[in-house]
TrEMBL record, chain A:
<feature type="transmembrane region" description="Helical">
    <location>
        <begin position="257"/>
        <end position="280"/>
    </location>
</feature>
<dbReference type="Pfam" id="PF00146">
    <property type="entry name" value="NADHdh"/>
</dbReference>
<protein>
    <submittedName>
        <fullName>Hydrogenase, HycD subunit</fullName>
    </submittedName>
</protein>
<feature type="transmembrane region" description="Helical">
    <location>
        <begin position="135"/>
        <end position="155"/>
    </location>
</feature>
<dbReference type="InterPro" id="IPR001694">
    <property type="entry name" value="NADH_UbQ_OxRdtase_su1/FPO"/>
</dbReference>
<keyword id="KW-1133">Transmembrane helix</keyword>
<keyword id="KW-0812">Transmembrane</keyword>
<keyword id="KW-0472">Membrane</keyword>
<feature type="transmembrane region" description="Helical">
    <location>
        <begin position="6"/>
        <end position="27"/>
    </location>
</feature>
TrEMBL record, chain C:
<keyword id="KW-1133">Transmembrane helix</keyword>
<keyword id="KW-0560">Oxidoreductase</keyword>
<keyword id="KW-0812">Transmembrane</keyword>
<dbReference type="GO" id="GO:0005886">
    <property type="term" value="C:plasma membrane"/>
</dbReference>
<feature type="transmembrane region" description="Helical">
    <location>
        <begin position="59"/>
        <end position="76"/>
    </location>
</feature>
<protein>
    <submittedName>
        <fullName>Hydrogenase subunit</fullName>
        <ecNumber>1.-.-.-</ecNumber>
    </submittedName>
</protein>
<dbReference type="InterPro" id="IPR038730">
    <property type="entry name" value="HyfE-like"/>
</dbReference>
<keyword id="KW-1003">Cell membrane</keyword>
<feature type="transmembrane region" description="Helical">
    <location>
        <begin position="97"/>
        <end position="118"/>
    </location>
</feature>
Amino acid sequence: MSWNLVLYGFINTALALLVSPLFISLIKKVKAYAQGRVGPPILQTYYQLYKLFKKERVYSYQTSFIIRLTPYLSLAFMMVASLSVPLVFIPAADPGLGNIILFLYLMVMSRFFMALSGLDAGSSFGGMGSSREMTLSAIIEPVIIIVFGALAYVLQTTSLFDMFGQVRENSFLSNPSLILTGISLFIILIVETSRIPVDNPETHLELTMIHEAMTLEYSGPDLALIELSHALKQTLLMGVLLNIVAPWGLASEPAAGGIAVAFLAFVIKGSLLAVGVGIFESLMAKFRLFRVPGLFMLAFFFSFITVIFKFLA
Amino acid sequence: MENLILAAYILPSVLLGGILLGMRLFRGSMSPGILAGFSLGHGLWHLGLSLWVLLVLPLPHYFMESRYLFVDQLGIFQVLIASVVFILAALYSRGYVSHLLSNKELDIENLPVFYIGFNLLLSVITFAFFSNNLALFWLFLELSTLFSALLIATLNARDNLVAALKYIFIASTAMIFAFIGLIILFSLTRQAGSPGTLNWDELASLAPLLSPSVLGLSALLILTGLLAKSGLVPLHNWLPAAYAKAPSVVTALMSATVLNIGIVGILRLSALLRQSQIGETFSNVLVGFGILSIGVAAFSMLSRRNLKKLVGFSSIEHMGIMLLAIGIGTPLAVFWMLFHTLAHSLVKSGLFFSAGIIRRQYGSDRFDRIFDIFRLQPVAAWGVIMGSAAIVGLPMFPVFLSELNILIQLGGVSVWLVLMVLFFLLLVASSFAIFLLKAFTRSEKNTDRPVFRTPLSMKLPIYIIMAGVVFLGVCQPQMLADFLNQIVKGLGF
Amino acid sequence: MLENIPLNDILKILLVLVLVTSSLVLWQRSLTSLFKTYALQSLLVALVAMVFFINDGHLTLLFIALLTLFGKVFLIPRILNRILLQMNIRRDLEFRFLYPVSSLIVSILLIFGVYQVFSNLMGEVMPDRLFFLGAVIGVSMALMGMMVIFSRKKMLTKIVGYLSMENGAILFGLFVAELPFILEILVLIDLVILVLLVTVLAFGIDSTIEDFHPRFTPLGEWFKKK
């Protein structure tokens, strides 16, 4: 176990946990401005998490151990997944750790437990949320695999470490099909983090919820952990997208200066992407559930084109 | 000096456009009689000019340095046919359009648009036949689509608009593929050494050098566009609807001239490809499409209740016969195909003129609305009967000669095909006979149906056509035969 | 390949974006954003022509770029938007045969098919990979445009589909061989006339106004009417 890997583990996970709430609030702020409001302050999510940690947990009498376990499991899976996505520097470790399929299925595990916990309390809204979430997940999963597969085919490797390393050398200017993959990854980002047009993260009406419905039963520190894992998932997906399309600033070894620069670069790029997501959300309305596969189809189409491009040019 | 000829061809249309624009600006208006008269004058001017070109100018003659436009025997032959049909149509339009106006089927405001489209269509057709450059030919084909669609749509009915739009979309979509084929052809010629040309004559000399498979692909794409414009299967869907809904004078013009542009284009394309290695395959493809068109048309005709749609399918069938002749490729087949264009144009326009009278009388083209026709509209009735006999291929009419000879040439290829085509022709004949029997033998008790007084301007074209068709069928002047032989030789068959 | 490597890459990026717009034309339902997508597509085609001009220096290419820019990015979308304002529809909700999901699947098959045909036949005509890529994308765009025409009901969408086909043909032409200038101008004029005619006719079909008579206004009147 080299100290490189240990250092990488600490820095990556800590950084990811640190900036995730920032990105969430940034998106909220952009949406608020688009709606003509001032919106919550940028650090609001941090305050929110702090507040939640101070409150007490309340569980329904009908729940089992699942609901008590899920917040920890969810966050744990996400933190392990964060090891697969180098945000500041690429570790000199076994590429298998950064396997893209591993990354995908760690996220799916987290979602699986969330769905179970939604069912746990026996309330109809929770069950509804779980079933909707699983339906969408069942449809998006093959598409994600195809997108990741296309990415792997183009870059000739399945490990995110190698992918980022390759793209660092020559950016998308020399591999224009990565633009298409970027668009597909953006669509996946929207779907996985339950944003408009797939799901409205700020709705308070239970019948319009998909993801939020599963978290209705949580309170206190549990809720904080759930929110944090959700934010972490978003950051990781943003990290994949950013480091594939715009890898500038990513360091290849843990030099102190390099890490600082990379950290700054990631925060800036991430903020820009967050603003982009916010604007994208503000431009659209939520799709009817049956139109959502159309969106996935676009992602699928683009990844196929990516493969064709590799053939052709 | 020769560019003056081109200017002379386009002059009347431009004049008309200017006059009508002036009238619009100064709030004047023109009666349909004057406009029809102008069109008649335009047609006569056109005919005269073409005859002069034929007799005085040594053909083939190229205009301008770029040689984009030219006049050769085939072109002038087709332009002469178009002029004659146009003259007859202009004459016919006088009475027809007046009735449309009085029946409120045509808005008085749309009248100038109608006549501008009418006249410009003739100019566009002429220039299409005069194009040496394939891309220019493509352009004029597109313009002919637009103007014919405009003419179809001038009546205020939703069906017309739907038919016109369907026509535009099918034809223009196919023409885009033809454009892609043109570009491939152009780059092929660049490969063979020349700086890149799309002129028919230069292409003919380069054809043996071009790579066969790519040439085949490009020819197939161009063929797609031309198939759509000629109303051949599988791109024929626009034809029955467009012909049924359009005013009969427009249908007559379209079926006699615009379809010819397409088929003549296929003829030139085939002449080109015969020089290359892929000629065999291409001819077989043409034969296949030809027989397919005849077959589909024959079977579709059986259940037709609408006269104009019936005649429309007959157009598809005859285009199929012409395509078949081009595919066979022997000099005799092409000779009779050219003769067929003349015969078909005349007979078809006669049929549509008569159908127009029937429409004016009964308000519909369907057989179950036609009663007592021999008493009410004898001219139209005999026009339809003679026209049907002619179009089906009875002897004494020219179509008999061309069909017979084309079939004989087909026999040289395969006897089974001859039998198949004969069967289809039999179906066609029966369809016409059934329709005529069903429509013309009805009479009704109610004898005070208003009679549409057919003006002489509508009857005269039918008389002229009847006479001309019988003349052509009985004795073919040697001059015509020599002229057609020249064309066949000029194309290289 | 073009002499400049950066230009090569720019071309590839532009081609990628053109394909994206083409699939968006297939996918979208809102007519206003459809027109904007078409304008974007034409802009990209004009940029491709511009890149070729920078590389070769043929004035024809510059004129094609400017003509495309003026005619298709500004003029035609304006005409379309004006027609849209006069009609009462905003979104094309009816798909006739192919829904977006299946349209995209069919497009994938089409692109693959075109690639196969071209790689078998066009070896001699296509000197290098980049031109081959452009040719395949051009023809694929034409086919996808054709799918739009046949799978949608509203006339305006069909028009945009046809225009997209035309863009594909022009893109194909830019990569394979350009025709002499005069012909390009005439083609563009033909396109404008076509769009005008079809929009005027379409007004009668797509309009949701119940009262139908009389629908066809002569072209002169239409220009005066606001």
